[in-house]
Amino acid sequence: MDYLFNSSFGLKLNKEQIIQSINEFINAAPQKNYKVIIGSDSLRRPENKADFVTAIVVHRVGNGGKYFWRHLEMVKIHTLRDRIIQEVLLSLETGKEILEALQKSGAKNFDFEIHVDVGEKGPTKSLIQEVTGIIRANNFEFKIKPNSYGASKVADRHV
User: Fold this and answer.
1) CB 82: neighbour CB atoms within 10 A?
2) What pLDDT, in 10s, does the model give residues 50-65?
3) How far is it, in rounded angstroms, from Cα 30 to Cα 98?
4) Does the chain have fewer CB atoms within 10 Å around its N or its C terminus?
5) Which of 91, 82, 99, 74 is nearest to 144 (CA)?
6) What is the pLDDT of residue 126?
7) Is the pTM higher than 0.85?
8) Dist. CA 20–CA 144, nearest whole Å
9) CA–CA separation, 156 vs 103, rounded Å?
10) Cα 73–74–80 angle (5° rounding)?
11) Alpha-carbon span 138 to 97, nearest angstrom
12) What share of the chain is helix, strand, coil (3-state, %, to 5)?
């Protein structure tokens, strides 16, 4: 993960800075419960292009949170299924790197989830089993709509 993420304040941060920021946030109130969430969303553009945003959310359950996000543009995205699968793959790639870095840093007291922008209503319902199977195969917990706010609210805000 040698690309930079944006903080909610507009700062450009690398992986080490993100891990440090997450640890500082958790250590500021260690008695609270935390969720570290990775979610991605996309928007189809003309000429088979799509914009993708991946968000890293640190949720202090019941008491706010902070997040980081990055934007990517890709070509050759032909179908909704292709876009959703790419969202999941981006989230998994980021999730693996962030979780490994957090574990190496000694971070504790957090749950880790992948949030997917699919739900029981709408055109993505036929993809639920496929994408959740991919996530399960990578040993991650997941949430779908309406509980996947990391993807459907935070990442969506920047797409």
Assistant:
1) 16
2) 999 999 999 999 999 9
3) 19
4) N
5) 91
6) 97
7) yes
8) 28
9) 28
10) 110
11) 13
12) 40, 35, 25
For residue 2, what pLDDT is reported?
61
Q: Which amino acid is at 91?
A: S
In the structure encoding, which two tokens stand for residue 157, read together? 């805000």
**DSSP state, residue 58:** E
Residue 80 has pLDDT above 90, yes or no: yes
Dig out the tokens for 22 from the structure: 């997450």
Q: Is 128 helix (H, G, I), strand (E, B) or coil?
A: helix
Tokens of 58: 């640190």
Nearest Cα to Cα of residue 85 among 46, 136, 40, 49: 40
The rounded distance, in Å, linking the Cα atoms of 126 and 143 is: 16
- For position 141, what pLDDT does the model report? 98
Q: Given CA atoms 140, 141, 145, 146 in this order, what sign does their dihedral have?
A: negative
